[in-house]
Amino acid sequence: MWGTFLVNSRIIELCSDLGIDTIGFFEGGISIAFAYNFFDTTDNGFSTYTKRADYHYIVRIYLDKICSYIQSLGFMAEAFVDSNPLPERYLASKCGVGFIGKNGMLITKKYGSYVFLSEILTNMPLKLTMPNKNSCGNCNLCIQACPVNAIYDKTKCLSLITQKKHINIEEVNSLCGNIFGCDICQIVCPHNKNAMPSQIDEFKTLSFMEQDAFIYASMDNSFFKEYIKKTSCGFKGKNIIIRNALIALSKRGDEIRQFKGNSEYINFYIKLLRGD
Ligand code: SF4
Ligand code: SF4
User: What does R_g of the chain's alpha carbons equal in angstroms?
Assistant: First the structure.
């Protein structure tokens, strides 16, 4: 019979060999945080998490290895990453992977909030790990820094707006140069100041995600398929990124008259930005 302590140690050891050291054990499962930030990016309107290979794909490769190990011991194991019914942040906070900050992010001790969350559900006998205490204290920096007061009203969040297919003129004007996602409430967080870089090479920053907004506003199908589609912002399609890049260019005062939309959709936003 497996002792729970031994089981936890085996899983921790395997994760450590894989470069993962932020995990917790809850009733019926394991919460695993994957650090992704290499702290080598410039601010070109793309959120840091989008500047690397699609995490759904990469994280699943790692989870499958851990699941295979658990299954080889005779237990059930099923992996989850994003887009699933599990309350990921809540589970991670309950078992000490981190705490949920006022900005709504799961904040880990070692990597701050620059982590992707995932879970493995299993019937292994696990020794449960304890929650961390919330360490926001009196800090309100994220609330003060959010340009659209979205901390308490997520419908206004720029990260969400960059991903919406149709946005109105107020939303266009609110975008602040964001092309996909928004990092403002993470950048100001004191828990991210000394966060450690990722040890997972597959998440290294992709140089084609570090270009000027002009490149993305002008991209064609082959650029999108060859590069952007393979990142974590590829799933929303090409046109949303072109639209947001055009908005970013217009916001910084660039003349966008030279752009000819490749579709009615893009033409609509070009006209809106020109005020035609
Ligand atoms: S991601 Fe940006 S817009 Fe959304 S809450 Fe944070 S700072 Fe505000
Ligand atoms: S910025 Fe301050 S209040 Fe916001 S999540 Fe970080 S520690 Fe908490």
Answer: 21
